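pinned: reference chain
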Amino acid sequence: MIVKVLGPGCANCVTLEKRTRQALTDLGLDAHVEKVTDYAQIAAYGVMTTPGLVVDEQVVLQGRVPTVAALGELLGAAARP
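pinned: its structure tokens
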């Protein structure tokens, strides 16, 4: 699983990355987490409001920072075949 956190490095982007990593750990999922800070790359995903979250090249979240539990549900669902 490849997870990308999209955002310029603002406080919300940092928080989303921390919570995403925690949710992945809690779920025991093996994932590679990347930070994408380039505006052109972020816009290429169609994300106009950061932070954004991309799982295996699918945008699953943008413009908000959910709780670790909510991220766990989102990531768990994305991990299912």
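why pinned: The mean pLDDT is 95. The helical segments are 11-27, 39-44, 68-79.
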